[in-house]
Amino acid sequence: MNDRLAALASSAQSELEKAVTLDAVEALRVKFLGKKGELAAILGGMGKLAPEERKALGAAANTLKTELETKITAALTRVQDQALEAELKGPRLDVTLPGRGVKPGHRHPVSQTLEDICSTFARLGFVIEQGPEIELDWYNFEALNVPADHPARDMQDTFYVDGKQVGVTKPKAPGGDGVGEQVVLRTHTSPVQIRTMLAQKPPVRAVMPGRVYRKDSDQTHTPMFHQVEGLLVDEKVTFAELKGTLDAFARAFFGAKSKTRFRPSFFPFTEPSAEVDVSCVFCAGKGCRVCKQTGWLEVLGSGMVHPNVFRHAGYDPSKVTGFAFGMGVERLAMLRYGIDDLRTMFENDYRFVAQF
Ligand code: DAH
After folding, report:
1. Which residue range forms the structural domain that includes residue 47?
2. 210-217 contacts: CB < 8 A, separation 24 or more?
3. Which residue lies with its CA nearest to atom 7 of ligand 1?
């Protein structure tokens, strides 16, 4: 019996030394120490022995079991170390590969453009005012001299929600009477003109950036977009100052060589009204595909504040005059960066936004 134990000890020793995988070591453990393994087989034959012999053999078998367990653990460690060693040496793991860097983010081209517009006007002494995106019909249209039946509403058609149902009523503003209690997502930033004037006495010199909403969607229109509104009110403000201000803005924003031109237009809230073009930033006014060979790009609407707008805002049109303007931020960003599809601005495709 003792011979069999000795034989098991030496074969286990040599086989464990040869094992090179975790599976092979595990197979040897089963072979020697498993329930049906070699040690169990030897102990199974103990019944035939005399009690003293049995005791001695039992003790020897236990010692061998402990020894084998220690050797198996050592073999497992060795096999694992060898595997790691081989992995570190071999080509499979390239420890020289640089880590994945975290790139710093930056603001969206629309935000950059909006901030540039506002800071350009800030240098001309304009402060920033803001108003709500959910707006009363009265501020969005009526106070701006666009009554309910006015055809100019067509251009900014939108959804109207009954103000009484959502718990709002028309403001008690000077000159505000009749309808105007309905609620809309503001279709332009012009209502902020009214809110600004109602909140303070003249003079006013402010720009009003923000989101606006219309039921438009195609290559050059999205249902939500951004505008920057401008308003300057004081005694004896003239159209010449409007021209000078917007000309200075165009040169600061598009470059010192930019020219502006004013074309007669119509907006209910200004009289007279003008559409402002800048010389094409792509061809410097020579004529190209973007400016449709005209050399000019339309960039904003403007005019002298209509007396009715002053009346609705509580200002006396016999004492003050002023000018106003409104521009589309996405449109200016498209011109500045040469983007030809407005919708890409809001798809949030990283490959697009990372370019600006
Ligand atoms: N609110 C106009 C629009 O969204 C733009 C505009 C035109 C604003 C003339 C003005 C202005 O303040 O004077 O189409």
Report:
1. 2-88
2. 210/130, 210/131, 210/133, 210/186, 211/133, 212/133, 212/185, 212/186, 212/187, 212/188, 213/133, 213/158, 213/185, 213/186, 213/187, 214/156, 214/157, 214/158, 214/187, 215/157, 215/158, 215/159
3. 301
